[in-house]
Amino acid sequence: MLRWLIGGGREPQGLAEKSSVQTIGEEQIQNPYTELLVLKGHQDIVRFLVQIDDCRFASAGDDGIIFLWNAQTGEKLCELHGHTHKITAIAPFSSSDGTEEKTDLIITASADRTVIVWDCTSGRQVQKVSCFHSTVKCLTFLQRLNVWLSGGSDLCVWNRKLDLLCKTSHLTDADISALVELPKNCVAAAVGKELIIFRLSASNNGSEGWNVLEVKRLVDHQDNISSLVSVNDLTFVTGSHVGELIIWDALDWTKQASECNFWDSSVHPDVQPEIKLSQSPNETSVQHLTSDEECVFAAVGKGIYVYNLQMKRVIACQRTAHDSSVLHIEKLPNRQLISCSEDGSVRIWELREKQQLPAEPVPTGFFNMWGFGRANKQANQAAKKMQENTPVYFLELVGDLIGHSSAVQMFLYFGELGLATCSADHLIILWKDGERESSLRSLALFKKLAQNGDLQLK
């Protein structure tokens, strides 16, 4: 295990080339992550990180092995062997249903067409299911119904012990790529370009049988859905490979707002335009979505965008946040965001309010509630008036974490314990608050000296 200073790793791919992305100097006074630990063990791309508890997490990827780690020390706690192909989905859950002692478990799916439940303390396999006809692409646990869902060519419903309760027939030529829980015992499944709403119900005859019923198909997207996220019990959001973002009502599944002009400089005139003959799908694809109760944060191509749910508009953006596609974005408890990219970089952004002069025009950039840009003159005037009375925000780069040499797939935020990132370079990096780590070392040294002093006195 190594301990480096930021900048001590190899130069990530793409950073040596001339770039239009915002840069930050060596003095990153607002970036606390001045130390890092490099965790080795994986032999292939590390695609997934999942938090188990306050100080443990699991990693998995294309080598089919799951590792458990201590987030404070970087210690490797356990290796879980059982899959023969790459991991395609991973999720944590607790075995406790109120009648037994709580046990931390994780569930993994693989391209070997198996699903395994693991005990995170002992490392043993609790259950293994091998009855799948295709690879499971996603796993989700429904708290309201106390059941598991797996998505692939079919939607399967399982109890906690992974007994199959029911399943759908083959849906379409496309597989289920993402699932999200909705109210009224429903789930939304992303299947190619379509969103399929299913309703789950237990049998009324007293048996343990379950039913899963398709109740609606939403066909508003023009291309495959690439990201699906729940905001709250009232709202969920989808994004597609051609840059469409749709805000949905979680109760009646109607479209509340939409946007498909992330890359259009006329929508964001405060951003320097780029002269291009055409738009590559990779430059407009919504790679990842996350949200809090106030905003939706979208990774679109190389950029990141902040959409306010109440204002129904983009309030801040960085069209070129990284040199390559942004793969993952998360909101921190404060007003900061973290993003990671195919270029190997991890960046910290702060959402700040722009100070405007009275005569300064406010940039446009609304999400159109009813369509894709068609609005009458009266609506435009009302929008302009509302815009003049609303604050304008911007994203400022406050930290640039250079350590990985290839695409950073995702990350986990552990608060004061730091940040964990995983990459195609087979490595996991724990980014640490340098001041906190220095204080901990000083405290440990002081305690050791005090103990030695007591021994000498005795």
From TrEMBL:
Question: Major location, coarse class?
Answer: cytoplasm
Subunit annotation: Component of the C9orf72-SMCR8 complex, at least composed of C9orf72, SMCR8 and WDR41. The complex is formed of two protomers, each individually consisting of one molecule each of C9orf72, SMCR8 and WDR41. The protomers homodimerize via an interaction between C9orf72 (via C-terminus) and SMCR8 (via N-terminus). Within each protomer SMCR8 (via DENN domain) acts as a bridging protein between WDR41 (via C-terminus and N-terminus) and C9orf72 (via C-terminus). The C9orf72-SMCR8 complex associates with the ULK1/ATG1 kinase complex.
Q: Which GO terms describe its biological process?
A: autophagy; regulation of autophagy
What is the protein name for this chain? WD repeat-containing protein 41
Q: Could you confirm whether the keyword Repeat appears in this record?
A: yes
Q: Which InterPro entries match?
A: WD40/YVTN_repeat-like_dom_sf, WD40_PAC1, WD40_repeat_CS, WD40_repeat_dom_sf, WD40_rpt, WDR41
Q: Which gene encodes it?
A: Wdr41
Q: What does this protein do?
A: Non-catalytic component of the C9orf72-SMCR8 complex, a complex that has guanine nucleotide exchange factor (GEF) activity and regulates autophagy. The C9orf72-SMCR8 complex promotes the exchange of GDP to GTP, converting inactive GDP-bound RAB8A and RAB39B into their active GTP-bound form, thereby promoting autophagosome maturation. As part of the C9orf72-SMCR8 complex, stimulates RAB8A and RAB11A GTPase activity in vitro, however WDR42 is shown not be an essential complex component for this function.
Q: Which GO cellular component terms, listed alphabetically, does the Swiss-Prot or TrEMBL entry include?
A: lysosomal membrane
> Which SMART domains does the entry link to?
WD40
Q: Which UniProt keywords apply?
A: Autophagy, Cytoplasm, Repeat, WD repeat
Write out the ranges of the repeats annotated as WD.
39-79, 80-128, 319-359
Cellular compartments annotated = Cytoplasm
